[in-house]
Amino acid sequence: NEDRERAWRASRETKLETIPNCEACTKPTPEEVRGWAQSFEKLMKSPAGRNVFREFLRTEYSEENMLFWLACEELKRECNKHTIDEKARMIYEDYISILSPKEVSLDSRVREVINRKMQEPSSHTFDDAQLQIYTLMHRDSYPRFLNSAIYKSLLHSLSRSSSES
C-alpha cells in the first residue's frame, strides 16, 4: 500500500510539475502578454501566463502558492469520490500540513475549516484556502511580477519579434 501511494505521489508530482510547462506550449502574443498587466484574472486564465508567473514565483521562493492553486483546480474537476479523498489528502499533506516544506501561508480560521472538512473531503474542501492564496498572489506577488525582469524581458522580446515580422 505504501509503494502504491509513493508511486501515485511521484506521478502526481510529475504531473503537477509538467502541467504549467505544457500549458505554455503555445507562445503568447504580445497583446496577451500586455493583457496580463491589465488584470490578475487575465494572467491566471492564460496557461502561458500562469507558467511565466510560476517561474517568477520560483525566484521568490513562493512557487508552492501556484502549485497549491493548480492542485485545487484539478481537485474541483474530479468526480470520483475515492480519487477526491486521495487527492484531498495529498493536497493537505503537501500544502496545508505544518510539516510540509511546501506549506502555504493560511490564517488559523481557514486551517480550522480545512481540518473540519478533511473528515469528509469534497472537491471544494480547499476553496477558502485557495481564495486566500489567490488573493495573496494577487496583492503581494502580482505587482512585483509586473515590475520583474522576467515579465519585462518577455514583453520586450515579443514586441521586438512582432515588429520584425
Task: Supply database-style keywords.
elongated, single chain, lipoprotein, mainly alpha, 165 residues, Regulator of G-protein Signalling 4, domain 2, ubl conjugation
Write a structural description.
This protein is mainly α. It has a single domain (28-162), classed as Regulator of G-protein Signalling 4, domain 2 (Orthogonal Bundle), CATH 1.10.167. The protein is 75% helix and 0% strand. It contains 9 helices and no strands. The chain has helices at 2-23, 30-36, 40-45, 47-59, 63-76, 81-96, 108-117, 127-146, 149-164. Helix 5 (63-76) packs antiparallel against helix 6 (81-96) and helix 5 (63-76) packs across helix 8. It is elongated and about 55 Å long. The model is unreliable at 12-24 (pLDDT under 50). It holds the Pfam family RGS. Forms a complex with G(alpha)z/i2 subunits and mu-opioid receptors; the formation of this complex results in mu-opioid receptor desensitization. Interacts with OPRM1. Its main location: cytoplasm.
